[in-house]
Amino acid sequence: MHGMINRAFQGFLVDTYGREVWDEVRSVAQLRFVDFEAMLQYDDRLTLSCFDAARTLLHKHPNVLLEDLGTFLITHPPYAPLKRLLRFGGSTLSDFLLSLDELPERGRMAMPNIEMPEIEVFAVDERTFQLKARWVLPGIGPILLGALRAMADDYGALATLSLDGFDGKKECLHIDIFDTAHSKGNAFVLGEVPA
Questions:
Q1: What is the mean pLDDT of the chain?
Q2: Which residue of 74, 113, 126, 157 pairs with 93 in a disulfide if CB–CB is 3.0 to 4.6 A?
Q3: Under a CB-based contact definition with an 8 Å cutoff, are residues 182 and 158 in contact?
Q4: Span 132-159, mean pLDDT?
Q5: How many CA within 13 A on the CB side of residue 171?
Q6: CA 83/CA 38 separation, integer angstroms
Q7: Nearest to 152 by CA among 103, 192, 100
Q8: Structural domain boundaries of the chain?
Q9: Residue 164: what pLDDT?
Q10: 110 burial level (CB within 10 Å; 0-12, 13-18, 19+)
Q11: For residue range 28-79, what is the model confidence (pLDDT) as tens digits?
Q12: In terms of Cα–Cα distance, which of 62, 67, 32, 33 is closest to 48?
């Protein structure tokens, strides 16, 4: 697993629950180092060990912890470049959702060695979407659920999102958009460079 992903999970735990929790996770997962390095590759077993330790220590259902991670990645200021990359997908939540199948290519332009999820989006009608995703590790569905809920808020849309099971190959989500302009979304200008 790419170190940036592990580092993001570490950052989520430290910023949300405190450095002491990360230290406990490291101990339970038997990591031989203090921090993940963002530019290194790690064995997937280390990632899974850290996740299992965190959910056990925090008494969290795996899906809840992963959904919180997805929300964190969109709403936490140090990860603003990720949200900006996602906002390039469209000016409305619907356009954004339909662009998600292009996300792996966009992500690899920025980070060639990162493991991006394979995503397929199907428009049932103008306001209903089905999303299917597969990644190298299980759990991409709940991560996307948290991230997409945060993105709906960023667009100012009123939408419901839910996990929709596993089709044998991919994790599935269901998305209903009720109002595309429910609230004032966050401003996004294509050519603007963030301060």
A1: 89
A2: 157
A3: yes
A4: 94
A5: 18
A6: 18
A7: 100
A8: 3-60, 78-179
A9: 94
A10: exposed
A11: 999 999 999 988 889 999 999 999 999 999 999 999 999 999 999 999 988 8
A12: 62
Residue 167: Cβ-neighbour burial (10 angstroms; 0-12, 13-18, 19+): exposed
The predicted model scores a pTM of 0.89
The pair of three-digit structure tokens given for residue 179, joined into one six-digit string = 């109002």
CA 121 to chain CA mean position, Å:
16
Sheet strands (E) in the chain: 118-125, 128-134, 158-166, 171-179
Tokens for 173, please give them: 């989500």
Burial call 133-165: b when 16+ CB within 10 Å, e when fewer: bbbeeebbbbbbbbbbbbbbbbbbbbbebeebe
Per-residue pLDDT tens over the stretch 73-124:
999 988 888 887 788 778 899 999 999 998 878 777 777 777 888 999 999 9
* CATH of span 78-179: 3.90.1520.10
CB 98 within 8 A of CB 130: no
